[in-house]
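WARN retry 2 of 3 for item q-0093 after timeout on previous attempt; input resubmitted unchanged.
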Amino acid sequence: MDNIYVKDLVLATNGELLSGSLDLPIKDMVIDSRQVSETSLFVPIKGEKVDAHKFIADVLKTCNASLTMDSSILNDEIKSTGKALIKVDDSVNAMQAFAEYIRSKYSFPIIGVTGSVGKTTTREMIAKALSAELNVLQTYKNYNSQVGVPMMISRFSDDYDIAVLEMGMSNHGEMERLAKMIKPDTAVMTLIGVAHIEQLKSQDGIYDEKINIVKYMSDNDIIFLNGDDAILRRRASELSNRVLWYGLGQDNDYKAYDLKIVDGEQHFYVDTPYAKKVLVKLKALGEHNVRNALVALANAELYKVDIVKAAEALYDFSGQRQQVINTDKGIIIDDSYNASPESMKASISVLAGYECKGKRVAVLADMLELGENEIKYHKLVGEYLKEYKIDYLIAYGELAKNYLEESAIDGIHLDSLDAVYEECLKWLKPANILLFKGSNGMNLKEVVNKLQKY
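OK item q-0093 returned
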């Protein structure tokens, strides 16, 4: 951030300056005491295990300012630094209020991205497409939360033409707070799945929370919705904003057709309201990535980026999630970062559509945090497996038994990562493809890493 000082922080947070100068500059916010620089604002958070207030005296030897919820920590050592210590009632609320203030100082457009599945890849693709002609700020790592978003906003500067911010939530009220800080000019909703259904009870409940992304947008502002999602189609009439649809169906404003996998690449054509038959080539495979690319191109077109240049930029896209690893012993598709019924289906479709002279092997682990209907959702994945040509299934975890039982395809159920690794070794052959998919907590990544070293 540019031209922001302690006096702005005190004003934005209604804080009390306990020591130091009001004229010290602040250029970013951090919550990790190891990451402070001279112009940082340190935000101490009281966690279950650690109260970061104990680091304040040390960080003020380096950084210009720190918040505190405890004025009693002020001592001669802190005073002697000359740095600013600001008393606030709640450090997280204060950093959010400060983020709102910072946001008000910048006029470049902000695209907010949410949804149950695909937020990160969609955000990355939008940023990639826009970067063909614009200087883009996008969410760093997983800074999409109540704490992460304020830290992202603190990175705003006059160097950027546009920002693409990911907005994650898991409980009631969280999306509204994010929207209040970000005030997006454009919104994207990927789909309504069952992630966080344990807290929000139903997919309609998830929609009700996520749609708060538009709460601080005007009626003329655009929200891009996945037109292939049944819940979004059903609920869109409730919105007063401008809705533009993207997807594979012909009734979408931005639509893809003639999908093919050619030499390990996803090829397809795109029609938009202003451009017809634009060829897109992706290294990221699957219909879900086609949709991600569609909304990336939609945003590029909206913000006057040449759509052909944007499509060319997407060819170089390499996301954090699904990784295709070519080894001399076989192909590994590593999508082990996380899992839901929707993302499971997307990954299985990638495996089924991948050109393969040998066997297609799915290594699928439990999906976690699905609430009281977890068995139902695992059986649903088993039903998906019936739709696609999968030669062998390795199911790992207690719930994963349901994949095998429902699909009735050839396979084995295992209850340890060592057993999964040994079974995978039998199938790791030059003509074969192995897909790894499961919740991060199931640690399938460990097996992938071992296989790469084998």
